[in-house]
Amino acid sequence: MTDDLPRLPAADPALRRRHLLGLPDGIGADEVEVLAISRFAQAHWEDVVADVPQQRGFVRPVTAALGIRTVTAAAPTVQALRLARLSRLAGPYAVSPEDAVGLGLPATTVVVYDLDAPRERGAKPYPGGDRDGLKRAFPDGLPVREEERVVQWLVACARRLGGAVRIGESGVVLTPDVDGTIDLTLFADRWLEPSQALAVVQSVVPRARLSEASGRWEGPQAGVGRASTSGAGGVTEAGGSGLRAALERYGVEDADERQRLMAEAAAFDEIMRATPPPAESYGVLVDLGVDGTISVEAATETELPPLLGDLPWTAGGVVAYRVHWEPLLVEELEMEKPSFPHKVARGRAAPQVQAVARALHGALGGEIADEADFLVDPADL
């Protein structure tokens, strides 16, 4: 498959200053193109002349044909995906296992794409989660603007295609876990009522239930505000510390006006409780016990993946049904290397997330996308 591809100039020192995407065997350039269009709507192929390092002391041959002149080797032409105004991804290049390992890429790497993008860095990383490993790869300043967008896309491609990303300058290699993100979103042109969505989810996960408020709003808590006498002797003030002082300083001074505003607010609350507005969103929950929770969040969506923006069925509005898994320790979602129990729980939850997404797609049609907004064939779930 790689016999006809140009070889990666692994000896070129400039190569190590650029970001590289390494992919295993069996991944075609058309798959990378689809993922590019999925993130960058104007992505397209263009031909570029590859830079060939010249050997020192090498004298090119000369010929007498048409006069004495130097024979110049034709520079090879390679394809490049134009991702953005200043960024393009050249390749694919064939690479040997020895050169791949020399660059720090996995030995299973067969082809490499070379990213030419501007160097745009911001502040140093702040403490916290680093699921993609970018804080580790850019310790002196995270990429911003265009470089941030294309680097995040490289990592998403590596996760989707089972590859790796080598960060220029630092040489850090990121190998995102293919199973690290399991959330799915169904984009459809139909709205399911909460009871209908619940029935669809229960067809594959019977213990699903609607996410509903556990109580009812009965107005402000008694003893809150100006009349509060708590807050002394270490007792927490009802309604929040400092509320009474803030109302006395910034609130309405006239007692009659305060009473009128409170009566008006109470009347509005009563009307809303009696005739609530139609729901603009809702949720369905599935309790997985020690494996966490699956939620299905339904709401209208205005920002669509680029591949869906021009489809006829999206013109009248789109509803997004987001199938999300949340573990018991939610902070592990943002860890580059989560614990083994987290991976076990994720492995048990993933088939159920996929089953729910398939069931919703079967009822509504539309398109399914992963967390990176890359489209997923329902048959692959």
UniProtKB/TrEMBL annotation:
Name of the protein this chain belongs to: Uncharacterized protein
UniProt-annotated stretches for the region Disordered: 216-238
Originating organism: Cellulomonas biazotea
